[in-house]
Amino acid sequence: MRPLPYDAHIHTSFSDGQDSAADCLRAAEACGLEAVSFTDHFNFGESQIAQRLQLLTRLAQDSSVHLISGVQAEIVDNAGHLTIPTAAAQKFKLVMVHLSAQTQGIGQQVPVRLDRLIDNIFECLINAINHSEVNVLAYPFNLGRLPAPLTPAQLPTSRLRELATLMYEEEVAFELDNRAWWWYPQLSVAQFTEEFSQLIRLFSQAGVKFIVGSNAHCAAGVGNMRYVRRLMQHAGLELSQLVDLTRV
Q: What's this model's pTM, rounded to 2 decimal places?
């Protein structure tokens, strides 16, 4: 497989990363990447968005790397509410959303019944990606470290197909995250890779596009996607199935 052309999931010191956007962009150039997206967590005020976007514009003017403005937000509840207001999200080209320990009904106030938990998971995801400004589901099904962990193999195929169909229709990408394995300490890396690859194949068969990211929190991690390559090879994905980040 040819080298992966971009890194769409990078955190800088603007949120919880260690290094500045300038250093991360230089790292991307050093790695030979064509494009990057800085997807800092939306834990800053709306008044700071313009300042942030102006900085990225200035950096992009002096770099050979195509720079996409991005942001990462959490899914709040099964109604699909997000931690980023719609008006704020619309100012970014790449909007990633994910489940978290703060998501009601999944990370908090977890139901006793398994069927209700599964309902909450899919309602959260379906209602979140119905937001027109959302275009990436970040590290999907990151459930292994939450209060009621479920492995990929425990997720109902029928519900996965329903979600995959909607993601295809709404053009929401499935992220292949280099740290996906971290979410499942109860599984060996080999077992997680096998289970998650089967899930990836299901979404691939539905025509869903994929997007790749290192989830780097320092400049040294930018472009590190060796595990993403392993997942792609195991699931039989081709580079043609990736979102073209330069066209987002």
A: 0.96
